[in-house]
Amino acid sequence: MTKGTLYLIPVVMAENAVAKSLTPFLVDTINAIDEYIVENEKTARRCLKEAGLKTPQSDLIIHDYGKHNREGSLKPYFKGLEQGKNVGLMSEAGCPGIADPGAEIIAEAHKRNINVVPLVGPSSLLLALMASGFNGQSFAFQGYLPIDKMARAKKIKDLEGFAERFKQTQLFIETPFRNNPMLEEILRTCRPDTLLCIASNLTAEDEFVKTKSIGDWRKEAPDLHKKPTIFLLYRTK
């Protein structure tokens, strides 16, 4: 029996961003399948509706891969795929598999010799890197930094060192309600001539992307509370 294809379906990152975030091919794809593996069922259903899903939502098969459902076997998620059905994988926002637990589903699909097809869509990391003006040929995404204040300060200093030593852009994120303490720590820890790009609420109507030196940011820091944000560090000297 021919196995199905796992389609990696990006999810819009902001309200009213469907038109500039999703491609016609993605819309055609969601109208050709009726089974999904999702990180957040509510978000996924809303995105499918806004994207132009014609299939009645009641006819969809939704496998919830939220944080409370990841300890068991992955086998149930692959029943349809093994039987030849095409299935969509959706993150809570942005691209599946990028800073997202869906990477485990993708890895399992490869082990099962299931075809994986990534669809074009919004990635906050790439959008931030594109808009930063920093090195786009050598960069590293560091994910979440330590919560402990001392460990976090050390990590920021290490990343500043990596940026200088390797001429490599350093990207990292924080839980939105801890963005302001993160920014305060960056401004305390880094040297005045280090460059910091703050990319916040990407694709939203109030999108904010600015690159300035740490010294300039210290004069006027933005309020990032509860705003999804990418932080990027770079040094040109």
TrEMBL record:
The Tetrapyrrole methylase domain, residue ranges: 63-215
InterPro entries xrefs: 4pyrrol_Mease, 4pyrrol_Methylase_sf, 4pyrrole_Mease_sub1, 4pyrrole_Mease_sub2, rRNA_ssu_MeTfrase_I
Cross-referenced SUPFAM superfamilies: Tetrapyrrole methylase
GO molecular function, one term: methyltransferase activity
Alphabetically ordered keywords of this record: Cytoplasm, Methyltransferase, rRNA processing, S-adenosyl-L-methionine, Transferase
Record-given protein name: SAM-dependent methyltransferase
Originating species: Pedobacter puniceum
Keyword S-adenosyl-L-methionine among UniProt keywords: yes
GO BP, one annotated term: rRNA processing
Upper classification of the organism: Bacteria, Pseudomonadati, Bacteroidota, Sphingobacteriia, Sphingobacteriales
